[in-house]
Amino acid sequence: MPSTVMEDYLKAIYELQTEYNGARVRTSQIADYLGVTAPTATSMFSTLESNDYVEYEKYNGAVLTEAGEQVALRLVRNHRLLETYLTAKFGYRLSDVHDEADRLEHHISDRLVACLADELDDPTTDPHGAPIPTASLDVPDRPRGNQLSAFAEGKTVVVLEVDDRDDGVLEYLSNRQIVPETALTIESVAPFGMVTVSPVGRDESVPLPADVANLVWGASITNSDREGI
Amino acid sequence: MPSTVMEDYLKAIYELQTEYNGARVRTSQIADYLGVTAPTATSMFSTLESNDYVEYEKYNGAVLTEAGEQVALRLVRNHRLLETYLTAKFGYRLSDVHDEADRLEHHISDRLVACLADELDDPTTDPHGAPIPTASLDVPDRPRGNQLSAFAEGKTVVVLEVDDRDDGVLEYLSNRQIVPETALTIESVAPFGMVTVSPVGRDESVPLPADVANLVWGASITNSDREGI
DNA sequence: GCATGGTGTTAGATGGGGCTAACTATTAAT
DNA sequence: ATTAATAGTTAGCCCCATCTAACACCATGC
């Protein structure tokens, strides 16, 4: 059984590894991500290695083993189901769910997680649009679309996912009801990356600085072959 | 902020202190209660003391300070509301709720606890019949009645509380639907303390060994002045 | 192809929470 | 009033996760 601290590292490694398409994760990335010093990350990498949760090669980062991935996926599932539950049942906002879920994900039993999933009818995505691993820890593979900055002006786009890394950004977006499922028209894309969008059905222009627009993923629905989404 | 380990000790001290009507709690009691060795308890008592959570006198146990009591009461509230929620919403049995609540009570935010309370309409007792401290951490003072062994044969008694210390006992009782609110007729009280009861409306005799009968508290309803309960 | 900066690791310390072994108070029994 | 038994504490160790300081690797630029 990994400690909750080890769990945090494993989940962080999973997240970075996923973000960079399976690339090895370096100690410094984790140190940054978790806000610890570099030596702390190094030492945890070797602890994880000696518990067979990662394969670690000095000066060259680590990859999760099967066992390590299972631990991480369980946490991701717990986290995303908790977020979904908090949002659905208690009206938590997108920007609020993260911290609560981050604490509880380590301590909730598989049984209670199963209850949450059941109550929610086995959702496949969380409120940010991120996929929820199944009970057997498979990740439903789901198109994420493209970042808003990638679309041409005039396109209509449905939001598929909103990255949950920055609470400030999430708050900005959820205040303007730009959440998964929202349809947006791309009004303009400025050279320095700012995207202005207009939610379909609302007479409003919302400016999204490049940093924000890059955290919002969507799929075009004007001439797309998957209107079904 | 106390660590979760300190929280466990504070809650344990609170529970023993309450059970013994405010008497000082000795290190050995806590060592037993929490399954740690005596020196560990001693050392934690002085840590708690230097953080002003208890007043500790060597060789003479400790009492909670105001601050220590607040910490303990918050945990008790969290614990009991979690138990109530798990039972009410997910069909947990009396014997199952304890562990889940014991882990989560440390990590759930005040906000989420408030949501649970709200969803449950601010219950005043948990599924074992124990009082739930209010949001401002007052303990509603509620008669607990007497242990079943204290009643005369022939009396009809309504169960007010079932002590949650022993999961085996809880399972035995909840399998037989002897839970708070259940009405029982006392069929016999043997000299060695075994009480045989018959749940009102069921044609069944349930034998309760002394150890079990002492964990069930109730009030007589045959000639009582509080049929209202 | 070698110096140099950056990245990463080793060394050594710290604080929390736990343990065993050894010692000291307290209490009870004669 | 002593002493034996029990209860409680101190001493000293360990492991985990963290830190700072010092050192080693590596990938360049020249």
From TrEMBL, chains A, B:
GO terms for cellular component: cytoplasm. Residues 1-65 form the HTH dtxR-type domain. Gene3D superfamilies: Winged helix-like DNA-binding domain superfamily/Winged helix DNA-binding domain (1.10.10.10). It is found in: Cytoplasm. Keywords: DNA-binding, Transcription, Transcription regulation. Its main location: cytoplasm. InterPro entries: DtxR_MntR_Metal-Reg (IPR050536), Fe-transptr_FeoA-like (IPR007167), Fe_dep_repressor (IPR001367), Fe_dep_repressor_sf (IPR036421), HTH_DTXR (IPR022687), Iron_dep_repressor (IPR022689), Transcriptional_repressor_C (IPR008988), WH-like_DNA-bd_sf (IPR036388). One of its GO terms (molecular function) is transition metal ion binding. Homodimer. PANTHER family: IRON (METAL) DEPENDENT REPRESSOR, DTXR FAMILY, IRON-DEPENDENT TRANSCRIPTIONAL REGULATOR. Belongs to the DtxR/MntR family. This is Metal-dependent transcriptional regulator. It comes from Natrialba swarupiae.
